[in-house]
Write a structure and sequence with these properties.
Chain lengths: 250, 166
């Protein structure tokens, strides 16, 4: 098995899966019908992308692995998503801020990944770019609307940005598997996206009359499977059906 | 694999035209442009379909419907999902656009016009009920991922707009 490639695909896919799972939690609970539908639509896009990645990963793994077994039957330490995407929903400002901070990165990543030497990853990236650019437009709008909105919405959005800022730097950490994939022309060196990322985010925050956090203290660990305390609860919810009724199907 | 041309055996076209999009029943999957190839190889029809959006839940149903339709005509088939080249709304045929309009979904505009419409800069999306362009974006996401929700300010009818995807 091509272990590095397999791990690298999970690194890409787990971010989509977990971000999608968090947004999906708003199904039926969104602050308005339109935002509810928007969040779950974005979630659906992210799950679609996850499926493409996992189907590819399952082919590489063999041994009867399927997209479902990879999604539902791994343990917490085996998930490689960044800490940012697993942070639980609080208020709507927080959900939008979390998703925006991921969306900007996601789009920058896909714009590079489309030139991957791996034709499957390149095809998934090309397809996903169209979706991700729409997501960032939606979440970016909400950052502006709430940041430059009422006193209360501004306060909430600023609090969300302040709290989530500490998780942004992990996006640009290059894992050992990724290093090998970059060397083979398959992976993207995410450290090169950092400058563009903070430039884009800062410009939008300014437009939204928000203050760019100055904190230089950053959390990391997700990419190596060391997650925050929220991850276990998320997985318990997401995996419940397959754990309680192994191999059950709709 | 990278060709944007469709390769479809001529005698399979009428069968595939009968298969409709489960979420937009008036639209055939052929007019939707999701069938990229259908070729008879060693007695088995190999069909390649491409999703409109990666998470489109209709794809599994479309695959099953194709298998069923071909079976009814005595063909065994294998349906494969391909991602490249990525689907674009340009592949919706003229007949498909007409069917969408009649069904109450405004067909996609050109990419530039689409952006202006979705950013609320210009009122150019035509109401499917009365034809007025005095319409307003209600939500960037509609009942499915491929649509946005609009409202006509003249006849007050809400309607879906099929987003341009390029």
């Amino acid at each position: 098995m091509k272990t590095n490639l397999y791990n690298y695909i999970l690194e890409l896919a787990d971010n989509c899966l977990i971000a999608g799972q968090r947004l999906g939690e708003l199904c039926g609970h969104g602050p308005s019908l339109e935002t509810d539908i928007a969040c779950t639509n974005i979630s659906l896009d992210l799950f679609g992308q996850t499926r493409s990645y996992f189907q590819y990963a399952a082919d590489i793994k063999g041994e009867g692995a399927t997209e479902d077994s990879i999604a539902f039957l791994r343990y917490e330490q085996e998930y490689k998503n960044v800490l940012l995407v697993e942070q639980p929903n609080r208020d709507f400002a927080f959900t939008m801020a979390r998703q925006y901070l991921y969306d900007v990165f996601h789009l920058l990543l896909l714009e590079k990944l489309q030139f991957s030497q791996d034709i499957t990853l390149s095809a998934i990236a090309k397809k996903s770019i169209k979706e991700a650019s729409y997501h960032v437009r939606f979440t970016g709008d909400w950052i502006k609307r709430l940041g430059d909105g009422t006193e209360e919405s501004h306060e909430k959005m600023q609090a969300a940005i302040n709290d989530l800022w500490t998780y942004t730097n992990e996006l640009f950490e290059v894992t050992e598997d990724a290093k090998i994939m970059v060397a083979e022309g398959i992976g993207v060196d995410v450290s090169t996206l950092k400058e563009a990322y903070y430039e884009k985010v800062s410009a939008l925050l300014e437009e939204a009359t928000l203050t760019i956090p100055e904190s230089k203290y950053f959390q990391k660990g997700g990419k190596s499977g060391i997650h925050t305390e929220h991850m276990g609860y998320l997985l318990a919810d997401m995996q419940y059906m397959q754990r309680a009724y192994p191999n059950m199907k709709w | 694999m990278l060709s944007t041309k469709q390769h479809i055996d001529e005698n399979l076209i009428p069968i595939l035209e009968k298969v409709s999009d489960p979420e937009i029943p008036v639209l055939s999957i052929m007019d939707m442009g999701v069938v990229r190839s259908a070729v008879l190889v060693d007695g088995i029809v190999e069909v390649s379909i491409t999703p409109t959006y990666t998470g489109c839940p209709a794809m599994d149903v479309i695959g099953d419907d194709i298998t069923k339709a071909l079976q009814e005509h005595g063909y065994e088939s294998k349906v494969k999902l391909i991602l490249s080249p990525a689907w674009t709304t340009d592949w919706i045929t003229e007949r498909g656009r007409k069917a969408l309009r009649e069904y109450g979904i405004a067909p996609p505009l050109t990419a530039d016009a689409d952006k202006e419409a979705l950013l609320g800069e210009k009122r150019i999306v035509k109401c499917t009920n009365c034809g007025s362009t005095n319409t307003k974006l209600v939500s960037q996401f509609g009942s499915t991922a491929c649509k946005a929700l609009f409202k006509c300010e003249d006849c007050l009818e809400p309607f879906d707009y099929f987003k341009c995807l390029k």
